[in-house]
Amino acid sequence: MKLTCIFVEDETPAMNLLKIYADRTPTLEVLGFFDSSMEAIHFLSENPVDVIFTDVNMPQLTGIELTQSLRNKPYIIFITANAEYAVNGFELDIVDFLVKPVTFERFMKSVNKVFDREEKKKLGGVNNHNEIENKEELEDYSMTSIYVKESGKVIRIDFDEIIAIEGLKDYVKIITDERPIVTHLTMKKLEEQILPKSKFMRVHKSFIVGLRQIRKFDGLDCYLELQNKLQIPVGPQYKEALMVKLKPVN
């Protein structure tokens, strides 16, 4: 048995990797690769498929909006750099959620989940073929690190190692206990797409801090003192949200 599928992904490196994985999976019959959700919707209007692999953070129409627009939903597998989208995905009854960078082993696990659902559907054990059986599956998607490029090298940084991040226009300086790492990223992308909000918070237009790194917040002079005694300014517009996040007991 083969599953017909399409891939919706606007990042070329990610799409190229998915093409390699699809070629290595004889149980998948790929009907199309799309870098636009709108193109995918047009194709799906005339070509039903069994599975859609889609990035969440797409231009024009997000993967979530794409899923919501479908009347007869096939199996949906989300792909993204931000694990926090997993909660939204489960609310939409997706089959699985792949966090970038996606390994072939994890990709195959998603494909096998679809076959498991198909088998249960045939046996009458699943009313909704996209039903999530156990929301503890969220643990599979929790990101603990990121990979960044620096001087031609790819470096892994654990979230717990990040003390603060300083914005430098089109670059950021990631401050760790070991050393600062400068890489080509924007604060906006880090804040909105990559860093888990449970661990990080933007406190200034130029700074994001690791919440576990905070030792003291001076509300009068508006600055934070972090574990390495680094002092970070707090912008007035972030002060109230920071107090809510810190949850002082008195």
UniProtKB/TrEMBL annotation:
This is LytTR family two component transcriptional regulator. The keyword Phosphoprotein applies. Residues 4-115 form the Response regulatory domain. Residues 146-248 form the HTH LytTR-type domain. It comes from the Bacteria. Transmembrane segments: none annotated. The lineage of its organism: Bacteria, Pseudomonadati, Bacteroidota, Cytophagia, Cytophagales. InterPro entries: CheY-like_superfamily, LytR-like, LytTR_DNA-bd_dom, Sig_transdc_resp-reg_receiver.
